[in-house]
Amino acid sequence: MANSYWVEPDVKFVKQLMGLGGETLKKCYQCATCSVVCPISPDEKPFPRKEMIAAQWGLKDKLVGNMDVWLCHHCNDCSTYCPRGARPGDVLNAVRAYSIQEYAWPKWLGKIVPDGRFWWLLLAIPVAIFLFVLGVTGHLHIPEGEIEFAHFFPTLLVDLIFVPLAMVWIPLTFGIGIYRFMTDIHKNALAEGKTKRKDLNIPDFLKSIACALPTILSHNKFSQCSENKGRYLSHILVFFSFLGLFVVTNIFFVALYILQIPGPYSMVNPVKILANVSGIALLVGAILMISNRLKDTDANVSKGSYFDWSLIILVLGLAVTGLLSQYIRLANVAVIAYPMYFAHLVLVFCLFTYLPFSKLAHMVYRTLAMAYSRYSEREPCE
Ligand code: SF4
Ligand code: SF4
Fold it and tell me: Closest Cα to atom 2, ligand 1: which residue?
C-alpha cells in the first residue's frame, strides 16, 4: 500500500514565496516539461515539477530543507519552455530566499535583510558606527598632506571592527544557519527516500565536499544550460574575484601584524596586482550580471527580485568604491578619496555583517547541498 501523506497547506508560506519573486507559481498545471528540460535535474525524482506542486499547496516541509531546491542554478531553461509562464526557476529561487530567512540567526536580521523597505537602515548602521568611532578618536575630518587612508581611518580601528566580524560574527551566525540547514536537508532526504544513509557522518561528508569541489570551482553546471549561458562568465568572475580578495586581505593582515610591513604597498607588488585584478574581475562580473538580467527579453524570465538585485548592487558598489578609492588616492584628490574609502568600508561592513542573510549565503548553502547530493548518492562523485 502506498504511504499516506497528511497535507497541511500553509497559505502564509505561499504568499511569502509569491512576495519573494515566485508570484507565478499558481499558473503551473503539472505538465512536467520543466523537469524534462532541466539539464541539471537527476533522472530519479527529477525537479522542479514536484517542487511546483509543493509550492502551490504550501507544503513548506517539502521545500525548505529540500536539497534539490539548491541543486538548481537558476539558469531558467525550465522557465523558457514552461507553456504556462509559471517560471519554475524563479519559484525555486524564491524558495531559496525563504530558506535563507528560515535558517537565519538572529531571525530579525533574516527578516529585514531581504526586505526592500529596510535598505536604508542596513546602510545607516555602519555609517553611524563609523562616524561614532571616528568622532570619539578625533579622526572625523579630512587629513592634511599626502593621502594615506590610515591617517583618516586608522588600520587598527578598521581591524578592531572587521576582525571580530570575520572571526566571530560570521562563523557564529553562519554556523547556526548551516547546522539547521544540514539537519533539515538530511531529515528531508530520509523522508523523501533520497538517501539510504541513516546518519550524517562528518568525515564522509567532508569527502563529499572534496568530490563536489571540481564542479563548484569550474561552475560547469551553468555551462550545461542552453538558455542563459551568460550567467556562467559573470558568476565565475564574481566567485574568483571574491576568492582573490579573500587571499589578498589575509596576506596583507599577515604582512602588517606578523611581518610588520605597513602599507601603502607598491602598485607592482604581486599581492597588490592580485587585488587589482580581482577588483576589476568583480566589476566586470557585476556589470555582466546586470546586463544579462536587463537584456533578457523572454517574457517567461523575470528580471529578478529585490533579494537578487540587492546583492548585485552591493557587489557593484564594492568594486566601484574599492577601485575608485585607490585611483582617486593616486590622483591625490583628498576631498573625494577619503569619503570614497569611507563608502567602501560601509559596503564591506554590509557584506560581512549581512552575508549569512543575503543572497550571497547561497554560495555556502548550495555548496553544502551539492556535497550532500554526492553524500546521499543522488549524484555521482566526479
Ligand atoms: S512549471 Fe510549467 S513546465 Fe513545469 S510542470 Fe508547471 S506548467 Fe509544466
Ligand atoms: S532554473 Fe535551470 S537548473 Fe533550475 S530547475 Fe530550471 S532548468 Fe533546472
Answer: 82
The domain tally of the chain equals 2
Q: How confident is the model at residue 3 (pLDDT cuts 50, 70, 90)?
A: low
DSSP-H helix ranges across the chain: 11-17, 33-37, 49-57, 60-63, 67-71, 77-81, 88-103, 107-112, 119-136, 149-152, 155-164, 170-191, 202-218, 220-223, 230-257, 270-295, 306-330, 334-354, 362-375
Give the pLDDT score at 221.
83
Neighbours of 249 (CB within 10 A): 15
Ligand nearest to the CA of 84: 1
Report residue 251 as a C-alpha cell: 596576506
For ligand 2, atom 4: residue with the closest CA:
72
CA–CA separation, 56 vs 26, rounded Å?
6
Residue in the block written with cell 568600508: 345
Is there a cis peptide before residue 214, judged by omega within 30 degrees of 0?
A: no
- pLDDT digits 0-9 by tens, 214-259: 999 888 888 787 777 778 899 999 999 999 999 999 999 899 888 8
> CA-to-CA distance for 194 and 280, rounded, in angstroms?
42
Of the residues 71, 103, 135, which one is the last residue of a structural domain?
103
Do 17 and 164 share a domain, yes or no? no
Residue 360: which domain range?
A: 107-375
Ligand 1 in reach of 91 Cβ (< 6 A) = no
Q: Closest residue (by CA) to atom 6 of ligand 1?
A: 28
pTM, full prediction? 0.90
